[in-house]
């Protein structure tokens, strides 16, 4: 390869390709919508909706009058009174309590047996049945309210019986559990925010998607790759310019997403859930740092995947499938919460996921973990770029027919 | 000057180009004539180093394509078989992009693009985006982009494909202009009349091999045929793939 004699007024090839790709794609509505509307706004929108729905739901169930069908209310008027005092609205009995719960006609149903008054007057333990479905998480607050009210009533009555017999009610509770919840308000939010890291990855992917397709499949379909390769420039320089263009769009998309999150984070009433969500500038800066190698990795990966497609449309299908991959750590960690080990930070996606959760939980990510995360993903990015460069050198790639 | 020595290329069991040798001289138009599937495009692709030959040598102005592919590409202006444009860029931007890739200084770029736009009669489309271009407008833009760096050697793969009569005439005129400037012009075609009208030298390919290499007049004499078309049919052994 002979070197080009350098004169000051010449642009470098990489820069020329970068500028052309950016200019061309700024003229494409599809790219713009994907990179600057859908990608960055999807996350914040979903997030706000989720928080608002949850806040309303929790507030409703915790303080609003709660209608509960009570079967056999006449057998235990005092129990019903206790429930009413706790904000429960007793409703007429239903024929089949199990079914009413299964069909979601009621969150919870209370049944009092007909032998309640006899057993009560004899001082024997009596049963109050509470029907519910533990797989329905939205009903959990209602179930907890009802059971707590009944428990409180039972303790109160027990204490009064002891007092009536001249004994101290304290005798019946030799051990008291003192609950010391170590979850900070931020940590409680993490349960909810497990999905958040995915949105950052999604916006990176959507920002660069159309450029990545254009890089190989698009150029080939348009039959412009062969003339491009007839120019006296090494292919790696063309590839470098194109990867930089993809990265530029991905990064711009991510920045926009972080900006919107920072603004939205101030508006969401997360504190009403006993949570604290800090999506401010400190958070944004660290997420950006964590995701920079990810941007390079995905630029190469998307180009690589698109290179195997024969047409633009086919590449689009492949890349949509690729978008499903980053959701894996989110789902996995929600289903199987594990204690994060150091090696996990090395794994691309997983490392970023854990790092972002660290930030949300305590506002800090350890220097060692940060280093591992950046190193692991950077290494993967270099490997992906090399594989893509190798593919880009192949003879077959350029031939359109 | 483009010199091809014993070029060979096979795809699996199919031999596309078989021991092909010829010379395209400066100040001449050399036509690579052959029916569809004769191996013309594959042969040209090896000239502009898109493909690597299995055997043989390509020399452009004395530079070996295997040793210095970038140097070879710098001396070539290529209109490949695939002539896609960037549809979201204007004709002028398409031309200037390739100029920059050839390392042209920004100061020369504008003037050179303007000269080509004028020479090819594309003033009316120069600043329109390529998305809505007709076939003829696309080919003109592709030619301008191929010649932006003022190459000494020009390779055109089936340049008149899809052009109407007026555009074809303009193209021929342009190619004669290049010859007058002393360029080495090599173009492929499967259209007899085109070759007869333009070429100083005809290289005929069939089934991957060279079957004749001579001036049009000499070809007629060599085969004893009355017309070049008859000579062509005689040489390739059939009229198959021959455009009327």
List keywords for this structure.
heterodimer; A: 401 residues; mainly alpha; abc type-2 transporter like fold; 2 domains; 4-stranded mixed β-sheet; 16 helices; 4 strands; 65% helix; 4% strand; disordered N terminus; B: 244 residues; alpha/beta; 6-stranded mixed β-sheet; 4-stranded antiparallel β-sheet; 9 helices; globular
Can you offer a commentary on this structure?
The complex is a heterodimer of chains A (401) and B (244). Helices cover 65% and strands 4% of the residues of chain A. Chain A has helices at 13-26, 29-63, 77-85, 97-102, 116-122, 140-164, 185-193, 196-221, 225-229, 235-267, 281-307, 312-322, 327-335, 350-362, 367-393, 395-398; strands spanning 66-71, 88-91, 109-112, 128-131. The longest helix of chain A is centred in the N-terminal third of the chain and has 35 residues, at 29-63. The model of chain A is unreliable at 1-8 (pLDDT under 50). By secondary structure, chain B is α/β, with parallel strands linked by helices. Chain B has nine helices and ten strands. Chain B has helices at 40-47, 69-74, 91-101, 106-119, 135-146, 165-180, 192-198, 216-223, 228-236, and strands spanning 2-11, 14-24, 28-33, 55-60, 63-64, 76-79, 153-157, 184-189, 201-206, 209-214. In chain B, the strands form two sheets. Chain B has a six-stranded mixed sheet, with helices on both faces. A four-stranded antiparallel sheet of chain B has the order 2-1-4-5. In chain B, α8 (216-223) packs across α9 (228-236). The longest helix of chain B has 16 residues, at 165-180. Classes of the chains: A mainly alpha (401), B alpha/beta (244). The A-B interface holds A 1-2, 4, 7, 9-11, 13, 16-17, 20, 23-25, 27-28, 219, 222-234, 395, 398-401 and B 45, 48, 50-52, 68-71, 73-74, 76, 78-89, 93, 97-98, 100-107, 129, 142, 145-146.
SSE topology:
The complex is a heterodimer of chains A (401) and B (244).
Chain A: H1 13-26, H2 29-63, E1 66-71, H3 77-85, E2 88-91, H4 97-102, E3 109-112, H5 116-122, E4 128-131, H6 140-164, H7 185-193, H8 196-221, H9 225-229, H10 235-267, H11 281-307, H12 312-322, H13 327-335, H14 350-362, H15 367-393, H16 395-398
Parallel strand pairs in A: 1-2, 1-3
Antiparallel strand pairs in A: 3-4
Chain B: E1 2-11, E2 14-24, E3 28-33, H1 40-47, E4 55-60, E5 63-64, H2 69-74, E6 76-79, H3 91-101, H4 106-119, H5 135-146, E7 153-157, H6 165-180, E8 184-189, H7 192-198, E9 201-206, E10 209-214, H8 216-223, H9 228-236
Parallel strand pairs in B: 3-8, 3-9, 6-7, 7-8
Antiparallel strand pairs in B: 1-2, 1-4, 4-5, 9-10
Helix pairs in contact in B: 3-4, 3-5, 8-9
């Amino acid at each position: 390869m002979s070197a080009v004699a350098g004169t000051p007024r010449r642009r470098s090839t990489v820069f020329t390709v970068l500028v052309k790709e950016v200019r061309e794609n700024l003229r494409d509505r599809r790219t713009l919508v994907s990179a600057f509307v859908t990608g960055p706004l999807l996350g914040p929108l979903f997030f706000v909706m989720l928080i608002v729905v949850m806040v309303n739901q929790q507030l409703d169930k915790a303080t609003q009058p709660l209608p509960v069908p009570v079967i056999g209310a006449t057998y235990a008027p005092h129990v019903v009174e206790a429930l009413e005092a706790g904000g429960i609205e007793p409703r007429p009995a239903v024929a089949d309590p199990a079914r009413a719960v299964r069909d979601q006609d009621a969150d919870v149903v209370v049944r009092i047996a007909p032998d309640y008054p006899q057993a009560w007057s004899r001082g024997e333990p009596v049963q109050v049945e509470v029907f519910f479905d533990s797989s329905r998480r939205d009903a959990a607050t209602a179930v907890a309210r009802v059971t707590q009210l009944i428990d409180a009533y039972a303790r109160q009555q027990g204490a009064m019986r002891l007092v009536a017999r001249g004994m101290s009610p304290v005798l019946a509770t030799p051990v008291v559990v003192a609950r010391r919840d170590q979850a900070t308000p931020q940590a409680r939010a993490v349960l909810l925010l497990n999905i958040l890291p995915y949105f950052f990855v999604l916006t990176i992917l959507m920002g660069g998607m159309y450029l990545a397709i254009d890089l190989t499949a698009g150029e080939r379909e348009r039959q412009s790759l062969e003339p491009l390769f007839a120019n006296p420039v090494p292919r790696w320089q063309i590839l470098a310019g194109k990867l930089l263009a993809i990265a530029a769009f991905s990064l711009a998309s991510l920045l926009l997403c972080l900006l919107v999150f920072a603004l939205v984070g101030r508006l969401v009433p997360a504190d009403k859930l006993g949570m604290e969500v800090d999506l401010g500038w400190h958070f944004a800066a660290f997420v950006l740092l964590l995701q920079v190698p990810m941007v390079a990795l995905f630029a190469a990966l998307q180009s690589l995947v698109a290179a195997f497609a024969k047409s633009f449309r086919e590449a689009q299908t492949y890349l949509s499938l690729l978008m499903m991959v980053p959701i894996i750590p989110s789902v996995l960690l929600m289903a199987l919460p594990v204690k994060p080990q150091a090696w996990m930070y090395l794994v691309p996606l997983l490392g970023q996921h854990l790092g972002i959760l660290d930030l949300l939980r305590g506002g800090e990510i350890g220097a060692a973990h940060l280093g591992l995360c950046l190193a692991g993903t950077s290494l993967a990015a270099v490997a992906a770029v090399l594989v893509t460069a190798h593919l880009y050198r192949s003879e077959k790639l350029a031939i359109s027919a | 000057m483009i010199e091809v020595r014993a070029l060979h290329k096979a795809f699996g069991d199919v031999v596309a180009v078989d021991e092909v040798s010829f010379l395209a001289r400066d100040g001449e138009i050399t036509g690579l004539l052959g029916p569809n599937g004769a191996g013309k495009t594959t042969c040209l692709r090896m000239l502009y180093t898109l493909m690597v030959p299995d055997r043989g040598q390509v020399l452009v102005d004395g530079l070996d394509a295997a040793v210095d592919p970038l140097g070879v590409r710098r001396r070539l202006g290529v209109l490949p078989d695939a002539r896609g444009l960037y549809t979201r860029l204007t004709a002028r931007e398409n031309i200037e992009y390739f100029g920059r890739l050839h390392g042209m200084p920004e100061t020369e770029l504008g003037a050179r693009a303007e000269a080509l736009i004028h020479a090819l009669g594309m003033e009316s489309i120069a600043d329109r985006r390529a998305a809505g271009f007709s076939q003829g407008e696309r080919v003109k833009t592709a030619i301008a982009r191929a010649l932006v760096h003022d190459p000494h050697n020009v390779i055109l793969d089936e340049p008149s494909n899809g052009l109407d009569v007026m555009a074809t005439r303009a193209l021929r005129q342009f190619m004669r202009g290049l010859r007058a400037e002393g360029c080495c012009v090599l173009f492929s075609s499967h259209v007899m009349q085109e070759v007869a009208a333009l070429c100083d030298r005809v290289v005929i390919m069939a089934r991957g091999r060279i079957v004749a290499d001579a001036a049009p007049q000499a070809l007629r004499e060599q085969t004893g045929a009355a017309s070049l078309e008859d000579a062509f049919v005689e040489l390739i052994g059939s009229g198959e793939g021959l455009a009327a």
